[in-house]
Specification:
single chain; about 160 residues; mainly alpha
Length: about 160
């Protein structure tokens, strides 16, 4: 996998930091990775549908696994907690954390090819920054306005 955009990597780091907090404990890293997958699945499925999410996450996992073997059996399709716990034991909490950041960065980049990087960053960031009890809502998550202006309307 080539190293992607700074924006995708930065949002991935912020989301991971929000998910794991200040802990490096293996149990916390496993729980954070599972929570992150759950939030991304719930939020992105609302926007791109179940099959769209599956295509995006499968491709992002393929890209991230090339450099991060700790993601080996992670699917992000649900019920990932036993898999993430095993990955942390087999590799390390640090390797899983680095892999999760790479996974989210790859996901942002792939989504950015479809909807543009700025919108992909904002969408994934808002989904990933939700509290555990919040459900992403399609209304108000992403604005179609660019920074600095609105599209001109003809008519």
């Amino acid at each position: 996998m080539t190293h992607g955009s700074a924006a995708a990597t930065e949002v991935a780091r912020r989301i991971w930091q929000r998910a794991v907090g200040d802990s490096n404990a293996p149990e916390d890293v496993a729980v954070a990775a599972t929570r992150m997958c759950t939030q991304l699945r719930a939020g992105l499925t609302r926007w791109v549908g179940a099959m769209g999410y599956r295509a995006l996450i499968d491709r992002a996992l393929l890209l991230a696994r090339a450099e991060h073997q700790a993601l080996g059996s992670l699917s992000c399709h649900g019920q990932d907690e036993p898999v993430t716990a095993t990955a942390v034991r087999a590799h390390s909490a640090a390797e899983v954390a680095i892999g999760m950041v790479a996974l989210v960065a790859a996901l942002v980049e792939l989504l950015g090819r479809v909807i543009g990087e700025e919108m992909a960053v904002r969408l994934v960031e808002q989904i990933g920054m939700k509290r555990e009890t919040e459900t992403p809502s399609p209304r108000g998550v992403v604005s179609t306005e660019s920074k600095g202006g609105r599209d001109a309307r003809v008519g």
